[in-house]
Design a protein that fits this description.
- It is globular and about 60 Å long.
- The protein is built from 14 helices and eleven strands.
- The chain has two domains: 2-168 and 212-237, NAD(P)-binding Rossmann-like Domain (Rossmann fold), CATH 3.40.50; 174-211 and 243-313 and 322-344, Rossmann fold, CATH 3.40.50.
- The chain has 349 residues and is an alpha/beta fold.
- The N and C termini lie far apart (42 Å).
- The strands form three sheets. It has a seven-stranded parallel beta sheet, with helices on both faces. A two-stranded parallel ribbon has the order 7-9.
- Bound molecules: NADP nicotinamide-adenine-dinucleotide phosphate.
- Residues 8-14, 32-35, 49-52, 73-76, 91, 112, 114, 165-168, 172, 175-177 line the site of NADP nicotinamide-adenine-dinucleotide phosphate.
């Protein structure tokens, strides 16, 4: 029996790796986060821990004497990019050190990074981005995390891997980066107000090449990386394996919501959607939706950021394919399927 410690188990990545390992069988799974899961579908033991509190982490994680794998997908958002470094490095160190000390059975630590490693958030960058590309101008918390993990592993019997996905397609509550929920809530409110589905971002972002990573595909890739010798001590980009343009997908999205596709009209969602909580509460009653608080469903600054990036976002996935992970997904189909799933689960009308 392998034991997986999922660090950040309630996030848009953590939920899916938990569900994936549960489905595989043969894994004893423990999820970590501050919030205690309330949903029946959470399929693991859970321990509430604040990883920014070293004493709390030591006290709770030193019990994992049988841990074989750590899947690290916790995240702390901060107002500026520079402020991300300290808390996100501290959480990784406070999670991995006590577990590595407690368990002589530890085999692998898998870390989730992202395309921002290449500076995709700063402006146009070299595309398709390759794992061997040189870093951008600091700071970047992925650099600090990866550098620490590489050093921590030296001389140890366990190995590490890091994956670099881009804009995750999945469900989670109260997470700062969830484009799918933003899209589902924005489109539903547009329909309720009798508006066409206008692209709210930058005209350049509407036509640029974009990529995403489906949460379930990422969970399969994380499992592969954590259990495949060829992936030991390696970094891999992991996206769905294709590219798309919002301009091609937009008419299909509008059809899925049974409204007209409008043209681009650039708006700041963080400002214009801020007052729509009461409307959403009315819609939740009218359409018999789950009573998730509006502010836990949509984090508009992330949508403004994604749809404001007017440059191509492309990673090369050649390295992971050559190493043996061949799973791919059609992104347009995955987005439409995810929105249908939100509807089925009564999250959006
Ligand atoms: N989301 C994306 O589109 C995306 C794209 C590419 C890369 N990434 C990268 O993937 C990684 C994970 O991001 P994510 O979007 O999956 O994050 P997320 O959905 O916000 O999940 C973060 C998880 O970390 C937990 N957490 C936060 N602070 C904690 C603390 N102090 N102690 C214990 N647990 C804590 C959260 O639960 P509690 O709040 O209950 O503690 C939650 O379970 C990040 O490095 C991110 O940059 C994300």
């Amino acid at each position: 029996m392998k034991q997986a410690i999922i660090v950040g188990a309630q996030g848009v990545i953590g939920r899916y790796i938990t569900a994936h390992l549960h489905g595989l069988g043969g894994w004893d799974i423990v999820g970590l986060s501050r919030r205690v899961p309330t949903e029946r579908e959470f399929q693991a033991r859970h321990i509430a821990v604040d990883l920014l509190d070293r004493a709390d982490a030591e006290a709770k994680l030193s019990q994992f004497t049988e841990a074989t794998h750590v899947f690290y997908c916790a995240f702390q958002a901060r107002p500026t990019w520079a402020e991300h470094n300290a808390p996100n490095l501290a959480m990784l160190v406070n999670a991995v050190e006590p577990i590595a000390r407690a368990s002589s059975r530890l085999q692998h630590v898998n870390l989730v990074e992202g395309t921002k490693y290449y500076g995709s958030h700063l402006g146009a960058f070299k595309t398709p981005a390759k794992e061997s590309d040189s870093p951008h101008m600091l700071p970047n918390f992925y650099y600090d995390q990866e550098r620490w993990l590489r050093a921590a592993q030296v001389g140890r019997s366990w190995s590490w891997s890091a994956l670099r996905p881009h804009t995750i397609c999945g469900f989670a509550l109260a997470n700062p980066m969830n484009l799918m929920l933003n899209l589902g809530v924005y489109a539903s409110i547009s329909k309720e107000l009798g508006l066409p589905l206008r692209f709210p971002g930058h005209p350049g972002a509407f036509t640029a090449v974009y990529q995403m990573t489906d949460s379930s595909l990422l969970a399969r890739g994380m499992t592969w990386a954590a259990t495949t010798p060829a992936a030991a001590n390696q970094v891999f980009n992991l996206t769905n394996g294709d590219y798309f343009r919002w301009s091609n997908l937009w008419p299909r999205l509008a059809r899925a919501f049974d409204i007209e596709a409008g043209p681009v009209q650039t708006i700041k969602l963080a400002e214009l959607m801020a007052d729509k909580g009461p409307l959403w509460a009315t819609m939740q009653k009218k359409y018999d939706l789950q009573p998730h608080p509006y502010e836990q469903l949509a984090a508009w600054p992330f949508a403004d950021y994604v749809w404001g990036s007017a440059w191509d976002i492309m990673s090369s996935t050649t390295k992971i394919r050559q190493a043996g992970f061949h799973d791919v997904i059609d992104t347009e189909e995955a987005i439409l399927a995810m929105l249908a799933d939100f509807r089925h689960r009564r999250i959006i009308p």
